Amino acid sequence: MPENTCEAFANGLALGAQGVELDCRLSRDRVVMVHHDATLDRTTNGRGPISARTADELRALDAAHWFAPSKGYPLRGKGIRMPRLVDVLQQARDAALVIELKGIDPTLGRVAVEVVRRAGALERVCFGGYSLATLRAAREAEPTVITSACLEEVRLALYKSWVRWPLRRLPYRALQVPEHGGGLRIVSPRFVRAAHRAGLTVHVWTVDEPREIARMLDWGADGIITDRPDEAVPAVQRWLESAGAFSTERRGAHRAREHRG
């Protein structure tokens, strides 16, 4: 399904995903729209920056225009639109949401928090993004808001994990990171342990291969962000079943040792 559309989110949830990850930007009239790029050209039949169009103008575009070229653009003209953030909040009422605030845009941070607050969804939303200014605006707009670390905060957390320097007094509650970034390994068992000692959750993106998903879970990752829920959901289920069997086996061996002792 085309990225960042209600159809894609519905498909992922139907396959068993526990939540959805989406990207947001502001329209010209300051409506929070669900869209990854700063421009419209890659995924829609529009051109130019998203910030130059009103929400109504953006909603009139075909969000599936360039989807699946190898299959002849099968969803072109089928009525798939760019959603507003409020549309996704209404659609996925019971799902956890990771909302990435794109670009350096403090106004986006404040407006997105207000949209989520009005929807009564603060407890099931985690805001993320690269920009400290944008995430700081979100945190200041709502002291109880849940955010992940921005790029600078992730870098500092990584460096501290190398020297076992504790993470303290943090303004964020999660680390949403790729395994590698900027020529560095980010995710490792040591990094995950350091995060957990600080009470943080670790979500790794973008992991699509079942073996890689299992490896991240083995290292202690709390969540997987993927483009392939059809592959990821069964992979996580297999890992959980395997981990449960291993845990039961270990408990049995422990009881056997106690009995022999």
Topology:
Layout: H1 6-14, E1 19-26, E2 32-34, H2 55-59, H3 85-91, E3 96-101, H4 106-118, E4 125-128, H5 132-141, E5 146-147, H6 151-162, E6 174-178, E7 180-181, E8 184-185, H7 189-197, E9 201-205, H8 210-218, E10 223-224, H9 229-260
Parallel strand pairs: 1-3, 3-4, 4-5, 6-9, 9-10
Antiparallel strand pairs: 1-2, 7-8
Helix pairs in contact: 4-5, 6-7, 8-9
What does this structure look like?
This protein is an alpha/beta fold and 261 residues long. It has a domain at 148-261: 3-Layer(aba) Sandwich (Rossmann fold), CATH 3.40.50. It is 41% helix and 15% strand. A five-stranded mixed β-sheet has the order 2-1-3-4-5. The protein has a three-stranded parallel β-sheet with strand order 6-9-10, with helices on one face. The radius of gyration is 20 Å and the shape is globular. It starts with 5 loop residues before the first helix and ends with a helix. Residues 247-261 have low confidence and may be disordered.
Low-confidence stretches: 247-261
What pattern of helices and strands is seen along the backbone?
HEEHHEHEHEHEEEHEHEH
Share in β-strands: 5-15%
Strand order of the biggest β-sheet = 2-1-3-4-5
How do you describe this structure in short?
With 261 residues, the protein is α/β, with parallel strands linked by helices.
List keywords for this structure.
261 residues; alpha/beta; three-stranded parallel beta sheet; 9 helices; 10 strands; disordered C terminus
